[in-house]
Fold:
Amino acid sequence: MSEMINGRVKNIMSTVFELPLNQITNDSTMYSIPKWDSLNHMRLVIALEEEFNIKFDQEEMETFITFKIVSATIASYL
Amino acid sequence: MKILILTESAGNPRSFPVEDMTELEETYPYLIREEYKHAVFWQLSYGNITTEELTSQACAYLTHWNPDLIIVHSGLNDCRPEAFTDFQKYIITNLSGRLAQYLKKYMYHPKLIKIRKIQRVSARRFRKTIKKLKLIFNDSNIIWLEISVDDSYDEIRPGVIRRMAKYNSILKEFYKDNVINLQAELSRENGFTTDKLHWNSTGHKLVARKLIEKINTLNIT
Structure:
Protein backbone atom coordinates (compact mmCIF):
# COMPACT_ATOMS: atom_id res chain seq x y z
CA MET A 1 0.00 0.00 0.00
CA SER A 2 1.40 3.40 -0.89
CA GLU A 3 3.34 4.84 2.02
CA MET A 4 2.32 8.31 0.91
CA ILE A 5 -1.37 7.48 1.21
CA ASN A 6 -0.76 5.82 4.58
CA GLY A 7 1.05 8.90 5.82
CA ARG A 8 -1.69 11.27 4.74
CA VAL A 9 -4.40 9.11 6.28
CA LYS A 10 -2.48 8.87 9.55
CA ASN A 11 -2.09 12.64 9.65
CA ILE A 12 -5.81 13.08 9.23
CA MET A 13 -6.61 10.49 11.86
CA SER A 14 -4.15 12.09 14.23
CA THR A 15 -5.96 15.41 13.84
CA VAL A 16 -9.51 14.07 13.98
CA PHE A 17 -8.92 11.73 16.91
CA GLU A 18 -6.57 14.14 18.72
CA LEU A 19 -3.84 11.54 19.06
CA PRO A 20 -0.08 11.88 18.55
CA LEU A 21 0.88 10.69 15.08
CA ASN A 22 2.98 7.83 16.43
CA GLN A 23 -0.10 6.36 18.10
CA ILE A 24 -1.84 5.85 14.77
CA THR A 25 -0.50 2.56 13.44
CA ASN A 26 -1.28 0.17 10.61
CA ASP A 27 -3.17 -1.95 13.17
CA SER A 28 -5.31 0.90 14.51
CA THR A 29 -9.03 0.21 14.61
CA MET A 30 -12.11 1.99 15.86
CA TYR A 31 -11.88 -0.23 18.92
CA SER A 32 -8.32 0.77 19.76
CA ILE A 33 -8.82 4.53 19.36
CA PRO A 34 -10.94 5.95 22.22
CA LYS A 35 -12.12 9.03 20.32
CA TRP A 36 -13.24 7.08 17.26
CA ASP A 37 -16.95 7.57 17.90
CA SER A 38 -19.75 8.17 15.41
CA LEU A 39 -19.29 11.95 15.34
CA ASN A 40 -15.56 11.73 14.76
CA HIS A 41 -16.18 8.99 12.22
CA MET A 42 -18.12 11.49 10.10
CA ARG A 43 -15.42 14.09 10.65
CA LEU A 44 -12.87 11.54 9.47
CA VAL A 45 -14.88 10.76 6.34
CA ILE A 46 -15.28 14.45 5.48
CA ALA A 47 -11.59 15.13 6.04
CA LEU A 48 -10.60 12.18 3.86
CA GLU A 49 -12.96 13.26 1.09
CA GLU A 50 -11.45 16.73 1.09
CA GLU A 51 -7.88 15.50 1.27
CA PHE A 52 -8.17 12.99 -1.55
CA ASN A 53 -10.97 14.60 -3.56
CA ILE A 54 -13.08 11.45 -3.33
CA LYS A 55 -16.79 11.03 -2.62
CA PHE A 56 -17.47 7.91 -0.57
CA ASP A 57 -20.87 6.28 -0.66
CA GLN A 58 -22.81 5.24 2.42
CA GLU A 59 -21.82 1.58 2.18
CA GLU A 60 -18.14 2.43 2.00
CA MET A 61 -18.32 4.80 4.94
CA GLU A 62 -19.80 2.03 7.03
CA THR A 63 -16.84 -0.25 6.29
CA PHE A 64 -14.30 2.26 7.63
CA ILE A 65 -13.53 0.53 10.91
CA THR A 66 -9.77 0.03 10.64
CA PHE A 67 -6.86 2.09 9.38
CA LYS A 68 -6.05 -0.63 6.87
CA ILE A 69 -9.53 -0.60 5.34
CA VAL A 70 -9.58 3.19 5.12
CA SER A 71 -6.19 3.34 3.45
CA ALA A 72 -6.91 0.47 1.07
CA THR A 73 -10.25 1.98 0.04
CA ILE A 74 -8.57 5.26 -0.81
CA ALA A 75 -5.79 3.47 -2.68
CA SER A 76 -8.37 1.56 -4.70
CA TYR A 77 -9.69 4.87 -6.05
CA LEU A 78 -6.29 6.16 -7.11
CA MET B 1 -1.67 -22.77 7.38
CA LYS B 2 -4.69 -20.48 7.53
CA ILE B 3 -7.12 -20.59 4.63
CA LEU B 4 -9.97 -18.17 4.07
CA ILE B 5 -12.63 -19.22 1.57
CA LEU B 6 -15.11 -16.66 0.24
CA THR B 7 -17.71 -17.79 -2.23
CA GLU B 8 -21.07 -16.93 -3.62
CA SER B 9 -23.68 -19.69 -3.76
CA ALA B 10 -21.55 -22.06 -5.88
CA GLY B 11 -19.53 -22.97 -2.79
CA ASN B 12 -22.61 -24.32 -1.04
CA PRO B 13 -24.16 -27.78 -1.26
CA ARG B 14 -27.39 -28.06 -3.25
CA SER B 15 -30.51 -29.94 -2.37
CA PHE B 16 -32.67 -29.14 -5.40
CA PRO B 17 -33.50 -30.23 -8.00
CA VAL B 18 -32.82 -33.85 -7.19
CA GLU B 19 -30.66 -34.41 -10.26
CA ASP B 20 -28.36 -31.58 -9.13
CA MET B 21 -28.14 -32.60 -5.49
CA THR B 22 -24.66 -32.01 -4.12
CA GLU B 23 -23.78 -32.98 -0.59
CA LEU B 24 -21.64 -30.79 1.63
CA GLU B 25 -18.91 -33.43 1.48
CA GLU B 26 -18.84 -33.13 -2.31
CA THR B 27 -18.30 -29.37 -2.43
CA TYR B 28 -14.88 -28.06 -3.32
CA PRO B 29 -14.35 -26.18 -0.03
CA TYR B 30 -14.91 -29.44 1.84
CA LEU B 31 -12.59 -31.31 -0.53
CA ILE B 32 -9.91 -28.68 0.05
CA ARG B 33 -10.34 -29.11 3.81
CA GLU B 34 -9.87 -32.86 3.38
CA GLU B 35 -6.68 -32.29 1.41
CA TYR B 36 -5.19 -29.88 3.92
CA LYS B 37 -6.34 -31.39 7.21
CA HIS B 38 -3.68 -29.55 9.17
CA ALA B 39 -4.92 -26.14 8.03
CA VAL B 40 -7.33 -23.84 9.84
CA PHE B 41 -10.25 -22.69 7.71
CA TRP B 42 -12.78 -19.88 7.73
CA GLN B 43 -15.43 -20.04 5.06
CA LEU B 44 -18.24 -17.75 4.01
CA SER B 45 -20.52 -18.93 1.20
CA TYR B 46 -23.51 -16.68 0.56
CA GLY B 47 -26.06 -16.83 -2.25
CA ASN B 48 -26.80 -13.88 -4.53
CA ILE B 49 -24.09 -11.75 -2.95
CA THR B 50 -21.96 -9.19 -4.75
CA THR B 51 -18.18 -9.27 -4.50
CA GLU B 52 -18.11 -6.09 -2.47
CA GLU B 53 -20.58 -7.46 0.07
CA LEU B 54 -18.69 -10.76 0.29
CA THR B 55 -15.20 -9.37 0.62
CA SER B 56 -16.26 -6.62 3.02
CA GLN B 57 -16.96 -9.31 5.59
CA ALA B 58 -13.38 -10.54 5.39
CA CYS B 59 -11.97 -7.00 5.30
CA ALA B 60 -13.96 -5.99 8.37
CA TYR B 61 -13.35 -9.01 10.57
CA LEU B 62 -10.35 -11.02 9.44
CA THR B 63 -7.44 -8.75 8.62
CA HIS B 64 -5.79 -9.46 11.98
CA TRP B 65 -6.12 -13.21 11.36
CA ASN B 66 -3.62 -12.84 8.47
CA PRO B 67 -4.68 -15.81 6.35
CA ASP B 68 -1.89 -17.47 4.37
CA LEU B 69 -4.30 -18.15 1.55
CA ILE B 70 -7.57 -16.64 0.40
CA ILE B 71 -9.69 -18.47 -2.14
CA VAL B 72 -12.38 -16.31 -3.72
CA HIS B 73 -15.18 -17.29 -6.01
CA SER B 74 -17.32 -14.30 -6.82
CA GLY B 75 -18.31 -12.00 -9.63
CA LEU B 76 -21.25 -13.54 -11.45
CA ASN B 77 -23.79 -11.67 -9.33
CA ASP B 78 -21.90 -8.46 -10.08
CA CYS B 79 -21.79 -8.84 -13.84
CA ARG B 80 -24.72 -10.84 -15.11
CA PRO B 81 -27.33 -8.84 -17.00
CA GLU B 82 -30.61 -8.13 -15.25
CA ALA B 83 -33.96 -6.74 -16.33
CA PHE B 84 -34.41 -4.71 -13.14
CA THR B 85 -32.23 -3.19 -10.44
CA ASP B 86 -32.28 -4.68 -6.93
CA PHE B 87 -34.47 -1.81 -5.75
CA GLN B 88 -36.93 -2.29 -8.61
CA LYS B 89 -37.10 -6.02 -7.90
CA TYR B 90 -37.80 -5.26 -4.25
CA ILE B 91 -40.67 -2.96 -5.21
CA ILE B 92 -42.10 -5.45 -7.70
CA THR B 93 -41.83 -8.32 -5.23
CA ASN B 94 -43.69 -6.36 -2.56
CA LEU B 95 -46.43 -5.05 -4.81
CA SER B 96 -49.81 -6.71 -4.93
CA GLY B 97 -52.48 -6.75 -7.58
CA ARG B 98 -52.57 -7.39 -11.29
CA LEU B 99 -49.73 -5.04 -12.17
CA ALA B 100 -47.48 -6.85 -9.72
CA GLN B 101 -48.37 -10.25 -11.13
CA TYR B 102 -47.67 -8.96 -14.61
CA LEU B 103 -44.29 -7.50 -13.70
CA LYS B 104 -43.22 -10.51 -11.69
CA LYS B 105 -43.57 -12.67 -14.81
CA TYR B 106 -41.03 -10.50 -16.56
CA MET B 107 -38.47 -10.06 -13.79
CA TYR B 108 -36.16 -12.62 -15.39
CA HIS B 109 -37.46 -12.66 -18.93
CA PRO B 110 -34.57 -13.03 -21.43
CA LYS B 111 -36.07 -10.54 -23.87
CA LEU B 112 -36.38 -7.86 -21.23
CA ILE B 113 -32.89 -8.64 -19.93
CA LYS B 114 -31.57 -8.25 -23.46
CA ILE B 115 -33.20 -4.83 -23.77
CA ARG B 116 -32.37 -3.40 -20.33
CA LYS B 117 -28.96 -5.07 -19.68
CA ILE B 118 -28.75 -3.76 -16.13
CA GLN B 119 -25.78 -4.87 -14.05
CA ARG B 120 -25.68 -4.84 -10.28
CA VAL B 121 -22.08 -3.70 -10.10
CA SER B 122 -20.24 -1.67 -12.71
CA ALA B 123 -16.89 -2.86 -14.04
CA ARG B 124 -15.30 0.20 -12.44
CA ARG B 125 -16.67 -0.64 -9.01
CA PHE B 126 -15.75 -4.31 -9.40
CA ARG B 127 -12.18 -3.30 -10.23
CA LYS B 128 -12.05 -1.12 -7.14
CA THR B 129 -13.32 -3.93 -4.90
CA ILE B 130 -10.82 -6.54 -6.05
CA LYS B 131 -7.99 -4.03 -5.90
CA LYS B 132 -9.00 -3.18 -2.33
CA LEU B 133 -9.00 -6.85 -1.31
CA LYS B 134 -5.45 -7.22 -2.60
CA LEU B 135 -4.33 -4.11 -0.75
CA ILE B 136 -5.87 -5.10 2.57
CA PHE B 137 -4.61 -8.67 2.46
CA ASN B 138 -1.26 -7.77 0.93
CA ASP B 139 0.57 -10.50 2.87
CA SER B 140 -1.84 -13.26 1.80
CA ASN B 141 -1.79 -15.39 -1.32
CA ILE B 142 -5.08 -14.81 -3.10
CA ILE B 143 -6.45 -17.31 -5.60
CA TRP B 144 -9.51 -16.33 -7.59
CA LEU B 145 -11.76 -18.81 -9.36
CA GLU B 146 -12.71 -17.59 -12.80
CA ILE B 147 -16.32 -16.44 -13.15
CA SER B 148 -17.92 -19.22 -15.13
CA VAL B 149 -21.25 -20.41 -16.50
CA ASP B 150 -22.28 -22.91 -19.11
CA ASP B 151 -22.35 -21.34 -22.59
CA SER B 152 -26.07 -22.06 -22.88
CA TYR B 153 -26.73 -19.73 -19.93
CA ASP B 154 -26.50 -16.93 -22.44
CA GLU B 155 -29.96 -17.95 -23.68
CA ILE B 156 -31.34 -17.31 -20.20
CA ARG B 157 -29.27 -14.20 -19.53
CA PRO B 158 -28.45 -12.67 -22.90
CA GLY B 159 -25.08 -10.98 -22.82
CA VAL B 160 -23.74 -12.83 -19.79
CA ILE B 161 -20.85 -14.51 -21.61
CA ARG B 162 -19.52 -11.23 -22.94
CA ARG B 163 -19.98 -9.49 -19.60
CA MET B 164 -18.30 -12.35 -17.80
CA ALA B 165 -15.27 -12.21 -20.11
CA LYS B 166 -14.85 -8.53 -19.30
CA TYR B 167 -14.96 -9.08 -15.54
CA ASN B 168 -12.61 -12.05 -15.79
CA SER B 169 -10.12 -9.87 -17.63
CA ILE B 170 -10.30 -7.42 -14.71
CA LEU B 171 -9.55 -10.30 -12.32
CA LYS B 172 -6.57 -11.35 -14.42
CA GLU B 173 -5.30 -7.78 -14.54
CA PHE B 174 -4.78 -7.88 -10.76
CA TYR B 175 -4.36 -11.55 -9.95
CA LYS B 176 -2.71 -12.83 -13.15
CA ASP B 177 -1.73 -16.52 -12.81
CA ASN B 178 -3.67 -16.76 -9.56
CA VAL B 179 -6.94 -16.73 -11.49
CA ILE B 180 -7.88 -20.33 -12.18
CA ASN B 181 -9.48 -20.96 -15.56
CA LEU B 182 -12.56 -23.15 -15.28
CA GLN B 183 -15.06 -22.42 -18.04
CA ALA B 184 -13.75 -24.70 -20.78
CA GLU B 185 -13.14 -27.74 -18.59
CA LEU B 186 -16.39 -27.40 -16.68
CA SER B 187 -18.29 -27.30 -19.96
CA ARG B 188 -16.34 -30.21 -21.42
CA GLU B 189 -16.78 -32.41 -18.35
CA ASN B 190 -20.45 -31.49 -17.74
CA GLY B 191 -19.59 -29.88 -14.45
CA PHE B 192 -22.51 -27.45 -14.39
CA THR B 193 -25.90 -28.09 -12.82
CA THR B 194 -29.08 -27.95 -14.88
CA ASP B 195 -29.46 -24.24 -14.13
CA LYS B 196 -26.19 -23.74 -16.06
CA LEU B 197 -24.40 -21.71 -13.41
CA HIS B 198 -23.81 -23.81 -10.32
CA TRP B 199 -21.61 -26.88 -10.09
CA ASN B 200 -22.55 -30.50 -9.67
CA SER B 201 -20.34 -33.00 -7.87
CA THR B 202 -18.24 -33.46 -11.02
CA GLY B 203 -17.73 -29.74 -11.23
CA HIS B 204 -16.77 -29.45 -7.59
CA LYS B 205 -14.22 -32.27 -7.94
CA LEU B 206 -12.71 -30.56 -10.97
CA VAL B 207 -12.47 -27.23 -9.16
CA ALA B 208 -10.95 -28.84 -6.08
CA ARG B 209 -8.35 -30.62 -8.20
CA LYS B 210 -7.33 -27.43 -9.99
CA LEU B 211 -7.19 -25.53 -6.70
CA ILE B 212 -4.99 -28.15 -5.06
CA GLU B 213 -2.65 -28.11 -8.06
CA LYS B 214 -2.38 -24.34 -7.74
CA ILE B 215 -2.01 -24.25 -3.96
CA ASN B 216 0.83 -26.77 -4.12
CA THR B 217 2.80 -24.39 -6.34
CA LEU B 218 2.58 -21.56 -3.82
CA ASN B 219 4.95 -23.03 -1.22
CA ILE B 220 2.70 -22.29 1.75
CA THR B 221 1.63 -25.81 2.76
In short: Chain B touches chain A at residues 52, 56, 59-60, 63-64, 128-129, 131-132, 135-136, 138 (CB under 8 Å). The beta strands of chain B are 2-7, 40-45, 69-73, 141-145, 179-180. Residues 82-118 of chain B form one domain.
